[in-house]
Amino acid sequence: xxxxxxxxxxxxxxxxxxEQLKQQGENRFPKRSDFSDKEVVAIKAFxxxxxxxxxxxxxxxxxxx
Length: 65
Description:
This protein has helices at residues 7-23, 37-47, 50-56.
């Protein structure tokens, strides 16, 4: 896989990993270590810091200020 990732790809990666973890019975959010370096760079580039990326993908509830 040598294609460039898009914002939609980044969202899908997080959503799919969250679903996979849920199916495996793991009660946690996706971590950076669950992805390749290339995927982490793309996710952070399109969606911002990791907690905001999880929120953007609908994996984690937004933080209340």
